[in-house]
Structures are given as structure tokens and as C-alpha cells.
Specification:
It is a single chain. The protein is mostly beta strands. The termini are far apart. It is elongated, with a radius of gyration of 14 Å. The protein has strands at 2-7, 10-13, 18-26, 28-39, 46-51, 57-59, 67-72, 77-82, 91-101, 106-110, 114-119.
Amino acid sequence: QVQLVESGGGLVQAGGSLRLSCAASGSIFSISFMGWYRQTPGKQRELVAGISSGGSTSYADYVKGRFTISRDNAKNTAYLQMNSLNPEDTAVYYCNAGIITKEWYNSDYWGQGTQVTVSS
């Protein structure tokens, strides 16, 4: 059994910052890709930022220069530092990870989501 648990969401004023965390736990052998997605009502879930096991990162154009993704492989945890937040960043943020379990099961896993609300 593998779980992804997000934390760090909340309400912040425009221009403020938040740091999201995503901790993976369970019968984990290795984690490849880890990413943060976001979704607003009526829209598809979209990739915000991703990081490979080697630390290569990618970002959606609209967060470049404002958001930073990182990971601690020893802790099986990914982070999303979000700065200069604006109301358009309001969404439910989901963590995603590609995980191989100790039972050699390879699959994508999702967290439960954490709400980020940016007030103007």
C-alpha cells in the first residue's frame, strides 16, 4: 500500500507565498517522476511542475520564475515553493508520483489534494 499525503495549502493574500509538501509512504522501492498538478472547477487537471529522480525540473509557463519544485529522495517527499501568488493560482493542488513498490508493482499515485486560495 502506497500513500501520497499533501500538506501546506491554505489562504494567502496576493503576493504572498506558500510551500506545499507531498510525502509518499508505504512499500516503496523507488520513485521516478514527482509532480504537482492543479485543478479548478470545470477545468481539466493541469501539470504545474515536475521533477525527475535525478532532479531535472519542468514548469508550466505561467509559474516559471514564481514556483520552485524540489524533492528529498531520502524522505520520499516533494515540495512546491510558491511565491508571488495571484488569484489565478487558486485551485486544488494534487501531488503525483510514479512509484515502483517493493512488490515490483509500477503505477502512478495521486494525493488527495490540498486547497490553495489566493485573495486579491
